[in-house]
Amino acid sequence: MGTRLSRRLAAGCTALALTLAAAPAVVAHADTAPVHRTGTLADGATWVADVPADWNGTLLLYSHGFGPTQAGNAPSAAAATALLAEGYALVGSSYDPNGSWWALDSAERDQFQTVDAFTAAVGRPTRTISVGLSMGGLVNAQIARDSHGRVAGSLGLCGLVAGGADLNNYQLAGETALATLLAPGDRLRLTDYPSQAAAAATATTLTDAVKAAQATPQGRARIALAAAYLNLPAWAPGKNPPAPDDPAGQEAQQYDWLASGQLNFIITGRYSIEQAAGGDSGSTAGLNWKSLLASSPHHGEVRALYRAAGLDLDEDLSTLHAAPAHQADPAATRWMERTSTAGQGLDVPLLDIHTTADQLVPVEQENAFAARVRAAGDGALLRQAYVARQGHCDFTPDEVLAGLHAVVRRIDTGHWGDTSAAALTADRPAGTTAFVDYRPARLVTR
User: Fold this and answer.
1) What pLDDT is recorded for position 343?
2) Of 1, 165, 222, 363, which residue is most buried, by most CB within 10 angstroms?
3) Is 214 helix (H, G, I), strand (E, B) or coil?
4) Strands, DSSP E only, in 254-391?
């Protein structure tokens, strides 16, 4: 796959490549504002760059997350300010603006072409480091796999590194549990949505069912069961993390995630993925619901709440087993496997940073990703670090800087230094980071 991909990317860059030999040299001018540049690629994707006056020669190639196909070049405005102040140039593309927000079919190609466009318009960087956030973290992992000398290292931020196929499977399992156990009479459509409005209507119905179920012990137990299949963290915004022996407190915070719009985001997002893939790759066919629950770090919570509610867990699991199964669309599955996974080998060093309570891209994805990297023989190139915070991609600028500095040291020295929580914390001023030594549980997916 790597050879075919490199040929395809090279063909797409042919027009730009002709200009590279004559690319302008970089000239820094002290005491002036960063230079802002924009451009358009062959497929209509736009790119945006900011170059500080005292550019240090390193270009950060930023891959943005799921959402409108608009060019961005940093995880946040605050992070951009901090990175520019350290002398880094920033660049990133919109991806193909003519398709779905799930732009995995074009993103990697557009990002590599953006580096070529930057080189032609601004100057040749001494090195390029890729950075990716959320869905862009998956793009970033693909870039780290397919570098072929075009990037020197990578920093992933809350990346969807387990890939879209796993995402579709575990989200569908959770949605099926909610629909089957909390809204059985509604006969909800959970895949193959005819429109985004139809997906949003399903999300509203399921959210209303969750809110109603929270009023009873039986409903709360079933919410916890579905949350386990969703890999949903038990630490919600504005709350202290519940104690390990507090199943009621764990479920209450999972409920907070679901009641606050979680289902609308993931179900309407599913519609966008279906539009890109031409169908749905998710499947519950042949799923062993019992063993899947047993693999969840929340299985103890679920069993405790079922006992307290006087419910028979095995009976509910049998109900899920007997429910009509969702069959994956073969063509959509092939498309997802081709475009929306990272593989996964690595060609360059990659440091992934993840919050420990991420409701949209569960931290457990890092577990699945690391196992695949090790299986490919590239475990020495991967490091992972964790921030003790609830929320998706909720990083401080200093956490981004600490991660980037670790990648830069790895590139400069040829080996990973200390990437422990203590070392990353020591890199930045006290109180500006929340790194913690952490080991994510297994990702609950088929």
Assistant:
1) 74
2) 222
3) coil
4) 350-357, 382-390
